[in-house]
Amino acid sequence: VNNNYSQHTLESYARDLLIFELFLDHYNIKFESLNKLHISEYKGYLRTAQHSDDLDVLKMKLRNKKNDSTNTHKAKNDQEEEIMSEESSKNDDLDQETDLILGKALMTKVLQKSRSKASKRRGGDTDGLNSRSINRMLSSIRSFLGFLIEIDETVPIPPEAITMVKTEKRESHVAEFHELIKLIEAPDEYETKQKVKYRNRAILELLFSTGMRISELTNLDIEDLNYDPARKKIEDNKIYVYGKGKKQRYVYMTERAITFLERYLSSREDDFPALFIPYRGQRVNEIELDSIRISQRYVQSIIKRYRKLVGISIPTTPHSLRHGFATYLAEEGANPAAIQHLLGHESLQTTTRYVHSSDRFAEQTHQKFHPLKDKE
After folding, report:
1. Is residue 244 among the annotated active site residues?
2. Which of 88, 192, 226, 339 is the most exposed place for a label (fewest CB within 10 A)?
3. What residue stretches are annotated with the Tyr recombinase domain (predicted)?
4. Considering 244, 249, 304, 341, which one is annotated as catalytic?
5. Rounded alpha-carbon distances, angstroms, from residue 220 to 207, 242, 259, 341
């Protein structure tokens, strides 16, 4: 918090260190006696999904603790017990606050017991976390040890003694351009409710038009656009977004995306600040107006549904639209540094991992540039 990390990063650190604490407890290891062999055992602990079982046990304990606390308070009736209850209540408030923090970290989707079918097909273990997830959790321990050194605390092993595991080499694929277009246009064909049709089409157009992250999209407010409600017109193609790690940048909309955004905004008859709002479900009943906005999970679910409806065989997610945005810009000859800026990456190396040429483009390149391309 003091180093101004984002809330998402803080929650990730909390979750990762909690799992490491569960490992130490599972094998009765004291942190002060931690060694390299223990770190190797921790990798196996994650690979075999033992952490998932231990998390289930912890969550059950937290639930039972909360129920026991409630039953205890109901049983106390006389004055003496009321005084004791008052003191106990103070402690319970602290316990409940701790439970909330832990619960928020535990419910992260990365802690699911098994990976998706698509993830299993890509290789690696089918039980626990894949190598990239394990490396991220090992990196959290490194950071924690570095923090202890920074505040002059004694550490059992130096951060650099924690080595990463070998990652699987895999090539990410992006759906063909015409397939992505079918996906983006799917709401107009498959949605019967006009408001949902207009909103979902605007979501997909905006994602592919700008290359923004799904979190950036769901956090947008109408005021982030230069929108004139009287004329029902968007006056500028730029949107100022707050990205990963609290970084800020401009993203740019195409005229096509602006057209469908204007259509969607013209259908709105509410005063909610969020750009994209739900029309049913629990979020509609939120007390705070700012909380009434679509969730990332919803965007993921509609893309999954449309992908099946239009018959795209390649796994496609909101992040795939971001990949496609970068890939097809590159195919048109865009400068890598410009793509880096549009994606909001600090490193150009990160950008190159996002720019994956389609099979069609690779074939065209082979036919055009191979030294023996001519029959003669």
Report:
1. yes
2. 192
3. 170-367
4. 244
5. 12, 9, 18, 19
